[in-house]
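To fix ideas, we reproduce below one chain and its tokenised fold.
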Amino acid sequence: MAIGMVYWGRKALDIPTRLPQWDHWLARLWQPAAVIIGLGMVVGGPLVNWLDDIFLALVMCVGLAIGWRLRTYRPALWMAVALVPGTLLLIIELLVRPFTTALDKSGAVDSVEALVLFWAGAWLLVARSQIKNLKTEAQARLAAEQEQRAIETQSETLEYEVNQRTAALARQTDELRATLAELQATQDQLIQSEKMASLGELTAGIAHEIQNPLNFVNNFADVSVELVAELTEERVSPTRDHDLEAELLADLKQNLARIAQHGGRAAGIVRGMLEHSRASTGERQPTDVNALADEYLRLAYHGLRAKDKSFNADLKLDLAPGLPLIEAVPGDLGRVLLNLVTNAFYAVQKRQQAGEPGYQPTVRVATQLTDGYVQVQVSDNGTGIPDEVRDKIFQPFFTTKPTGEGTGLGLSLSHDIVTQGHGGTLTVESQPGQGTEFTLRLPRSVA
């Protein structure tokens, strides 16, 4: 019984972990127990019984001591409570046995021993139940701790991945910002190239267009010099003809007026070129759309003829009389008209180069006032725009021209100038192989 109590107590109370030094001796209690059992089998008698009781009392006292040492552990305390009556009873029996044998025959002793055993059994069951509960709680705590550790590990992993992802996104953001800066710089260069390209077209037309007023200025200046010479001779003549002097002065005045007129025309052409070439200030001013349409149609035509002397086209200018002035940025609006007209001439030139029999290139610019809008229509009978690309022509960098002949920014910039800069609309209708018509509508604003 003592060895069974020791085995159960060591396992139930986890003595090897809680009291390793005590466990070292408890593991060897089987040796004296084996000696006593051997003596009982060989010798027997009262002496062996007395040794057996002493060994049992010693084991119970050790159990009490262990219970006291582990009193904070409730099952150990209940085991000690279970052993107290039995230990006391056994010690009393050992102390009284040498002096009397009456206790051996007393029924009261049997009754007390039965009560002691019942007491010990009850509290040992309580201890065993608490041990099971504590093990269950310990397993639950262990599972919770493992789950918590798993959650913490997963959180650390997720945090690491998030940090890695954040760092990668930060790097990508920096790369995208650098790429965006490069794209913006490239876009600015392309826009400037587009402006310079349109400026080249404009300059070629201006070189031809400005020649006419300059020729008039030179011719009238030469005639005026001759008139001044005649007037000088007449004034020094002994017989002055006052009527002739008046006629010469009238002709001279008329020539000077024509010189001023054509000089103003040349100055206007130069001023338009400067407005087109420099950056727009965005300041709106009263603008004559008819004058812009007339000027840029002729400038675009002469600009193309400066590059291709063999090119000819019919120019149709249908300008609505009395068209009101509108509030616009003339330089920006001129860029739009120049781009639309230049594209129209390009389309009819390409169709002409295809060698179609009986084909006559025609470009028409018309203005009218409709529904509170000043409308400008630029139409041609050129190659037209395929249906599959018509919706893309206002997209930046999209062009139907071969590589090297267009940046794909002209129509995109024109669309932005009209829609965002002036609150108007720019639409297109086209039939492949028949022609194209761009319609520019600007809100009416009488100056």
About this structure: Residues 107-209 form the longest helix (103 residues).
